[in-house]
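Protocol step 4 of 5: obtain the predicted structure for the target chain.
Materials: sequence only (see below). No template structures provided, no constraints applied. The aim of this step is simply to have a reference model before the mutagenesis design in step 5. Sequence pasted as it appears in the construct record:
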Amino acid sequence: MDGDNNGLIIGDSILPDIFTVKYCQDLGRDAIILYLWLNMSFSGNGFDPEDVKALRIVPDGDVEKLVSELVSHGLLNRRDGKIFLEDIKAVEVEDYVKNIKARGTDRDGLEMSSDEEQRNTLAASISKTFYSGKMNYTFYRLIDKCLYEYKFDGRVCYRLFEEGYKNRCQFSYFQMEKLASEWYNKGYVTIDKLDEYLGMTVQIDKITKLAGKQLRKHLNGMDIERIERWVRDYKVSAELVNYAFKVNEYRDKINLIIIEDTIKKWFDAGVDSLEKAERFEEEEHKENSRKRRITKKRSNSSWKTGSEAGIDAAPAEDKELDRKNEEKTAPEDDNVIPSDVLGMFGGEDEDD
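Step 4 output (C-alpha cells):
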C-alpha cells in the first residue's frame, strides 16, 4: 500500500469466514486490528517488523508481541527471515482431508458405520448440552479430530467439552484444541487415565488455594509445580497438607519447603491419611518428651561426667608432653644408684 496515496480507498480485502468463526474471538483487540491491516497491506507478500511499524497502527513497542500472538494462533508464519500471512483456507482444507483419512471413510455405499452413528450421537449431545444446540461446525471438526486422530474414548471427548464449559472456554476453538492436544500428549485417551488425571487436578487446585490462604500470598508457577509433585509423588490430600501447616505453627515463618519436608517425612513412614498423620505426630511428640526428660534428669544429677560438668579432658598433646617430661627425669638404667643415696655412706676416697 502506498503511504503517499491520498485517493479514496474503495478496494476490497478478502477475509475468509473461517477467520471470524475459528480465530477472531481468541485474539485481543489490537491483534485483530493489526491482522486486518496486514491482510489489506501485505496479502501474498512477505514483510518484517519494520514494515509493520511503518503502518503506525499500533505502538512500535507492541509490534513484536502482537506479531507473536498472531503467529501462535496460526495466522502468520515466519520463514526465511520474513513474516507471511498464513493461508487459513488451505489449512482448513488440509485439516479436513487429514480428518477424513483418519476416519477411514473411503468405503463404498451411503450407509453410516456404527462408529459414525456413535459420533453423531455424541456430537448432538455435546451441542445440546454445552452450546444450546447451536454448536459451530469447527467444534464438530474438533470432535472428529479427538475421535479419529487422537483416538479418544467417546467419554473422554465428552469430558473435554465438559471441562471447557466449566472453565468457560467452550467457545474458544484455540483453547479447546490446546486442551485436547495436551490430553493426547499425556496419554489421557481412556476414561480411566483421564479420571485419574482430573482427580489429581482437583486436588492440586484445592491444595493451591489452601496453601495460598495459609501463606497469605499468590502462588507462582514454581510453587504450583511443587504442589503438583506432592500430589503426583506423595499422593497427598488437601487434609494432610492442612495438618502439615498446623504441626508447623510453632515456627516463626512457614514456607512450602518446610511443609514439603513434613509431607516427605510422613510419606517415608507410610503415612497416607490424616488419622495416621495424627498418630505419627503423637508418637513423635511422646518420644521427644521422653528424650527431654532424660536430658533434664542428667543435668540436675549430683553426679556428673566431666563433659556434663563442663570440664574438658586434657588435650592429647598435653598428655604426650607430660609423658616426655617423666622420661627425662627417670634414671637411664635401673641399676644406677642415685647420688644422694651414695652420699649417706661417704665419698669414694674417704678411707684412703
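Step 4 remarks: Residues 274-300 form the longest helix (27 residues). The CA atoms of residues 123 and 140 lie 7 Å apart.
Proceed to step 5.
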